[in-house]
């Protein structure tokens, strides 16, 4: 496949920001779905914007217009137009079931997954990929219990287990993945300029919480003109970032969920920045490379992979649930290598 000849810098999507990074991945995945030839993604460098490489010339206006074609027509009914039928599930009504409808009984989840997988084999349907990017059938959680630990329904007493969702979505209060997708979509439908702004210069919206991907969306009182604490999310960037979730594979072992680029011990998102343009397929290989996922990465091997920087952002916590991801912090790889030197071979004298 020939390399793309056109480059479009996306000045608002900085690789050092978790929301900016995820929004760049979402842009790559959506344009892959829209263009005849696969686009690629790279970065100008550490603490620098993303660059989209395409075979046809795009401007920020034409790219925003292309992305807008993937907005749902009725987000309150099904907010994920690229994979209809994934996010339109009703909440399970039995007592003790989780609030998020994507946390479904494992038997139901496996039935849905089999149907999606068959559609993928028979008709090149993409819903199996999206299903497994958002719903983890390999790590389960029990239903809700009363304060004394008694299951709220007889099904829970018999051991009903529910799927988990991607850890990239931080759940606070009664937030669910579908309703966050719906709210971001509604803002972008009401004002299509949000998508152009997502690529060029973010526009924050009062009383919009986002999806806990952006620490600045918490809107402390000193950050706003009226002096009152309020949520100030970025709808366009959030909508793109939600589509970026599909880049991360969900795995697990019963009660121990795992996800690409996510550290379950520290509840932190860790990601690379690279200079060689990647398609969605080659990007998956890079994100899952052992040298990216190790806690003691080595500079030489990272350079060989085309990686120019690594960043991390732990998730904050609130009294009523998950909080937003912290601002991205660059990992000092060289210092880590000094603290964790690799063993060297020594010559042994013969006896």
The arrangement of helices and strands along the chain is EHEEHHHEHEHHEEHEEEEHHHEEEH
Provide mean pLDDT, rounded: 87
Number of helices: 12
What class do helices, strands and sheet pairing give? alpha+beta
List low-confidence stretches: 146-151, 153-157, 221-227, 338-351
DSSP helix fraction: 25-40%
Number of strands: 14
Distance between the termini: 59 Å
Topology:
Elements (H helix, E strand, L loop, with lengths): L5 E9 L3 H17 L5 E4 L5 E6 L5 H9 L37 H18 L3 H8 E8 L11 H4 L3 E5 L11 H14 L2 H8 L4 E2 L25 E2 L1 H10 L5 E4 L2 E4 L2 E2 L4 E7 L5 H8 L2 H4 L5 H6 L2 E12 L2 E5 L3 E2 L2 H7 L12
Antiparallel strand pairs: 1-3, 2-3, 4-5, 6-7, 8-9, 10-11, 11-12, 12-13, 12-14
Helix pairs in contact: 1-8, 2-7, 3-4, 6-8, 7-8
Q: Could you explain the architecture of this structure?
A:
This protein is α+β, with helices and mostly antiparallel strands and 351 residues long. The chain is 32% helix and 21% strand. It has helices at 18-34, 60-68, 106-123, 127-134, 154-157, 177-190, 193-200, 235-244, 280-287, 290-293, 299-304, 333-339, and strands at 6-14, 40-43, 49-54, 135-142, 161-165, 205-206, 232-233, 250-253, 256-259, 262-263, 268-274, 307-318, 321-325, 329-330. The strands form 5 sheets. Strands 10, 11, 12, 13 and 14 form a 5-stranded antiparallel β-sheet that branches. The chain has a 3-stranded antiparallel β-sheet with strand order 1-3-2. It has a two-stranded antiparallel ribbon with strand order 4-5. The protein starts with 5 loop residues before the first strand and ends in a 12-residue tail after the last helix.
């Amino acid at each position: 496949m020939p390399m793309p000849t056109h480059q479009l810098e996306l000045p608002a999507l900085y690789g050092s920001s978790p929301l900016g990074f995820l929004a760049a991945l979402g842009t790559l995945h959506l344009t892959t779905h829209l263009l005849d030839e696969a686009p690629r993604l790279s970065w100008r460098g550490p603490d620098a914007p993303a660059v989209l490489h395409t075979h046809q010339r795009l401007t920020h206006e034409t790219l925003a217009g292309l992305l807008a074609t993937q907005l749902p027509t009725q987000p309150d009914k099904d907010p994920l137009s690229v994979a209809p039928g994934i996010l339109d599930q009703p909440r399970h009504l039995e007592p003790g079931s989780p609030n998020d409808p994507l946390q479904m009984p494992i038997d139901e989840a496996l039935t849905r997954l089999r149907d999606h997988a068959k559609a993928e084999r028979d008709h090149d349907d993409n819903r199996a990929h999206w299903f497994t990017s958002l719903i983890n059938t390999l790590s389960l959680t029990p239903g809700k219990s009363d304060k004394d630990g008694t299951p709220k329904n007889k099904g829970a007493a018999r051991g009903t287990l529910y799927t988990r969702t991607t850890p990239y979505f931080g759940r606070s209060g009664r937030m669910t993945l579908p309703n966050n997708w719906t709210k971001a979509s509604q803002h972008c439908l009401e004002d299509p300029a949000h998508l152009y702004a997502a690529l060029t210069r973010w526009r924050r919206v009062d009383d919009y919480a986002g999806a806990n991907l952006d620490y600045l969306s918490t809107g402390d009182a000193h950050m706003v003109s009226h002096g009152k604490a309020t949520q100030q999310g970025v709808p366009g960037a959030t909508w793109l970032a939600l589509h970026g979730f599909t880049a991360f594979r969900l795995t697990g072992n019963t009660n121990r969920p795992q996800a690409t680029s996510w550290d379950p011990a520290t509840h932190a998102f860790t990601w690379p920045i690279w200079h060689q343009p990647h398609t969605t397929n080659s990007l998956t290989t890079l994100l899952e490379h052992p040298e990216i996922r190790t806690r003691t990465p080595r500079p030489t091997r990272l350079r060989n992979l085309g990686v120019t920087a690594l960043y991390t952002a732990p998730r904050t916590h609130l009294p009523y649930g998950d909080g937003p991801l912290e601002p991205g912090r660059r990992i000092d790889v060289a210092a880590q290598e000094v603290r964790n030197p690799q063993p060297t071979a020594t010559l042994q004298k013969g006896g």
